[in-house]
Amino acid sequence: MTREDRVEKQAEKQSCSRRDFLKFSAKASVGVALGGMVLSGCAGVPMTQPNMLFRDKPLGRKVRVGFVGIGSQGSGHVRNLSKITDAEVVAVCDIRESQTKWAQDKLVAAGRPKPTAYTKGDYDFLRMCETEDLDLVYTATPWRWHVPICVAAMKSGKHAATEVPAAPYLEDCWKLVETAEKYQKHCMMMENACYDRMELMIWNMVRQGLFGELLHAECGYLHDLRGHKLGEKVYQGMWRVYHSIKRNADLYPTHGLGPVAQWMDINRGNQFDHLVSMSCNARGLPLYAEKKYGPESKWTKAKYKLGDVVNTLIRTKNGQTILITHDTNLPRPYSRKIFLQGTKGLVRKYPEEKIHIEGISEGHGWEEAKDYYEKYDHPLWKAMQEKSKGAGHGGLDFIEDYRLVECIKEGKPTDMNVYDAAAWSAVTAISEKSIAKKSSSVDFPDFTRGKWKTTPRMEIMGV
Ligand SMILES: NC(=O)c1ccc[n+]([C@@H]2O[C@H](COP(=O)([O-])OP(=O)(O)OC[C@H]3O[C@@H](n4cnc5c(N)ncnc54)[C@H](O)[C@@H]3O)[C@@H](O)[C@H]2O)c1
Fold first, then answer.
1. CATH code: domain of residue 256
2. What is the pLDDT of residues 246-285, one digit of tens each?
3. N or C: which end of the chain has fewer CB within 10 A?
4. Where are the alpha helices (DSSP H) in 87-131?
5. What is the pLDDT of residue 32?
6. Residue 223 in domain
7. What is the pTM of this model?
């Protein structure tokens, strides 16, 4: 058994076990049919009433943060937090001491107090949660750790924030929801793509009715990750490639889907209803491995379950369709697709930003979407564009960190709540089920248990 397998087994123990989950599901009285199964909650976590717009008292002081997982993405967040006046990183945790030391040095160099380091193995985040007086635990660890860390945080009275995707399995999505409800804590999935200029502008235009009634969207994660997945040492322990070996699913749905879900008011008057998913052969990773490491390499001989292109089609309760593409094993330019069509117009982001609005655009042609920025830029983008310059992913990561800290400090609902984290992340597990059943239609569970019908639209956020 490799270290990766051992770690995965341990992490699974921490989250809902599949067996307990099925036992509980069979007994549960409230449920949603999913391919013959009933999905309604995790064993041992009592179901409570959701509170979609959960508010807290303003803190009246800086937000005390414990950060777990300071790798390539986590280090960017720590850097951002060092620049956000209302945040104070009190503790840092990583299985690699070099990473906590880096974070301590970075924070001290920024004139901040030196945070306490937690480096005693995979579960030292538990000790951090138990020991430290924190408002927020923020994690950028490999996917399998997101749920155990968020749950430990909320159980010990802290809000939780996690990198994407929040949870790799359905039972883990439920576990996040039920723990957040039980302990009345925020659990925000940090989907930075929701803060990109174009996505924010489209949202602003949707609200102003420029596209009319929304009917269809296309989005996804189309990123040549062969060098990352098989580049040795890019990811700590090569964790990412193991998911491509073990699962045939849309492994990373939220970068494209998050903004679309916001435009379509998912969990606030609308919901994902069902999906079908289909994947093609898996060729890209073994071919790449053979070129890089030779025919005898374990990476060349490995059996990869993940089809190179996975397409998933969702239908929402309000009758829209969303096509999501996951394409990370082949040579290609980067794209999240980002396409939206309504009764009055359409817009797309990749490969070039183009728009057509009936009554504004001439004839049947495209216009340059950048010409709309001045008039329709989102107020959050306008307020943050200077401050966020130079931060990760073109500044988005700074905006999301800033918003997280601001919401926690002010006791406001976070821009994305635990139901969003669950519904957007659930696409991985549900697409996996659909693919395994020859692309059968599979229903989404209702993580809100009916509250989506009465929850108001999200306000357009400002600063
Ligand atoms: N939003 C984005 O644009 C974006 C970009 C890259 C990565 N990510 C996400 O960020 C997360 C991390 O990805 P990455 O690329 O930084 O990976 P990485 O391998 O570079 O970093 C992971 C870090 O977590 C640490 N770690 C592993 N297990 C741990 C544990 N049990 N306790 C404490 N620390 C632990 C590792 O030592 C490492 O420093 C993933 O969820 C990924 O999907 C998001």
1. 3.30.360.10
2. 999 999 999 999 999 999 999 999 999 999 999 999 999 9
3. N
4. 97-109, 124-131
5. 29
6. yes
7. 0.91
Overall domain count for the chain? 1
Closest ligand 1 atom to 7 CA: 31
- Residue 278 domain-assigned (yes or no): yes
Any domain includes 71: no
Atom of ligand 1 nearest to the CA of 192: 1
**CA dihedral sign, ordered 417, 422, 428, 434:** negative
Residue 440 C-alpha from the chain's centroid: 25
Domain that holds residue 254: 194-378+417-453
Tokens representing residue 323 in the block: 């096509």
Q: Is 119 in the pocket of ligand 1 (CB under 6 A)?
A: no
- Answer yes or no: are the C-beta atoms of 139 and 159 closer than 8 Å: no
Yes or no: say if 286 and 304 are a contact pair by the CB < 8 Å rule: yes
Find out whether the beta carbon of 93 lies less than 6 Å from any atom of ligand 1.
yes
- pLDDT tens digits for 195-211? 999 999 999 999 999 99
User: Considering the domain boundaries, does residue 258 fall inside one?
Assistant: yes
Q: Which atom of ligand 1 is nearest to the CA of 237?
A: 19
- Ligand 1 contacts CB of residue 440 (under 6 A): no
> 56-100: per-residue pLDDT in tens?
889 999 999 999 999 999 999 999 999 999 999 999 999 999 999
Residue 62 has what DSSP assignment? P
140 within ligand 1 shell (Cβ under 6 A): yes
96 lines ligand 1 (CB under 6 A): yes
